[in-house]
Write a structure and sequence with these properties.
Number of strands of chain A: 0
Radius of gyration of chain A: 20 Å
Largest interface: A-B, 40 and 40 residues
Distance between the termini of chain A: 35 Å
CATH architecture of chain A: Orthogonal Bundle
Oligomer: homodimer
Strand content of chain A: under 5%
Helix content of chain A: 55-70%
Shape of chain A: elongated
Largest sheet of chain A: none
Number of domains of chain A: 1
DNA sequence: GCCAAATATGAACGAGCATTCATTCAGATG
DNA sequence: CATCTGAATGAATGCTCGTTCATATTTGGC
């Protein structure tokens, strides 16, 4: 399963994996712009409700009410309730796939890129914390084929991290570890903020979690050369306020 | 939230958190031994079915059939379907709480204890892989109070790891890291084997996962002194066949 | 061997919910 | 203005379960 330059085309226009040929959730309605708007409404309501109450405890009635539309309307844009779940999950995974590259824009130094990527990952996860947990809860409720779409989206996101690791190794900053496995240490670290938030928040802020955790994981990864550069980077960062910021403001 | 010598009493007799005063799931049936046997049957069937199909897609009918009992009988041992879920989840968490200390029996060296604990954790997770995923999927479906029982059980399991870390730090083998946070790196690593098995199995066996992962995490943790001991331990281990074994056979 | 008491059974009940579809509505077309 | 088309509505339908309970079966004391 080779993934090229992970996810290049996609993020060009709007938010929409929904319309990817593969996903192809049929709608009764022809007007593409309308479909996108309506599905946006529906999915936003659904993510919120599913996250709070879970998929099965949420009725289509609930979704319709929160989205401010009728029950019938939902069925014009979606074949069944499972479709709503798929769209909801993909919208979450897609926000990862958009935010990480956005944070990396213009960052060149491999070590900084690695930091920024994981930092950004943790922050999207935080901004969609409940939804991240939803993904863990509900992906298995999808029929096999649909589930694979979600998995594929996850792999594409991981690829951003993996690429940073490969880059670091190539530059002699990281030890030549197994990239696939190491990627998961970082991915689980980011997801962990959502998964274990109920406990971790008792002793740790997001910033602290990121700094401490990244420092821990990088310690395992850095070569002596990498370690030297890392100390410089940290000095630069804490001089800049302690929070990594993309140098390309928007 | 202080946890003493985590979980001492419990494992004396059978498998049963079920009868802990806190859990106190009422049963119509008086005979305690019978209750234990029947609940065992029911829970075993439930864990299997819930893991496969999810909680909501599994009917009580299904559970009854698989357990080889009638629908009515289940309601003699449990108040409602949610009770079955709680019992199922606690039985999973309880297997962690039993297996880790069992593996640690008789192991004294702090560094080895740390390795053995995480190794054992990964292996229980593997032996109950689907059930571990179930815990992530379904804990939130429990009402708040019940959910807290599950969380408490998880914290108790984590305490085995945390204790190993504290011990290593005390002996100057580990850097003086934040124990609570570091514990989660290890916990997520163990759970990760179940959560991401769909992907990781494509490039990695359990043994490889454990060795590589533990090596990675320990690298981040060890002091120079610890690192020296670690190299010795690894040498000893690989001489012994490469697989850590509890020195107390049973 | 007989009779309570304790267990076990599963048909029947009824609530909850996804999905449908007959109907209404808004705006474009000519 | 009359007509047509595509969107939107939500009451009605029908099915799927969780739960109950009247009844059957087993157990163990005498």
């Amino acid at each position: 399963m080779r993934i090229g330059n992970a996810a290049e085309g996609l993020m060009a226009r709007g938010t929409d994996i929904t319309m990817t040929p593969e996903v192809a959730i049929k709608s009764q309605v022809a007007d593409a712009a309308l479909v996108q708007r309506r599905r946006g409404q529906i999915v936003a309501a659904a993510v919120e409700l599913f996250s709070e109450q879970g998929f099965y405890r949420t009725t289509i009635q609930d979704v319709a009410r929160k989205a401010g539309v009728s029950i019938g309307l939902i069925y014009q844009y979606v074949h069944d309730k499972d479709d709503v779940l798929l769209l909801a999950l993909l919208s979450v995974l897609d926000s990862y796939r958009r935010e990480i590259p956005r944070a990396l824009e213009g960052v060149i130094d491999p070590l900084t890129r690695c930091w920024v990527a994981v930092d950004a990952y943790c922050r999207v996860v935080d901004s969609r914390r409940e939804a991240t947990v939803l993904a863990y809860r509900s992906t298995k409720s999808l029929p096999k084929e649909r589930r694979e779409l979600v998995m594929k989206a996850e792999i594409e996101t991981n690829e951003f991290i993996a690429e940073c690791l490969r880059d670091g190794i190539r530059h002699g900053l990281f030890r030549p570890v197994n990239v696939d496995l190491t990627t998961y240490h970082f991915v689980l670290f980011a997801h962990g903020w959502a998964l274990k938030h109920w406990r971790i928040r008792e002793f740790c802020s997001l910033n602290h979690y990121i700094e401490d955790g990244l420092d821990f994981l990088l310690t395992a990864l850095l070569t002596p050369k990498g370690a030297r550069q890392y100390r410089q980077m940290r000095a630069r960062l804490s001089a800049g306020g302690g929070r990594v910021v993309s140098p390309v403001p928007r």
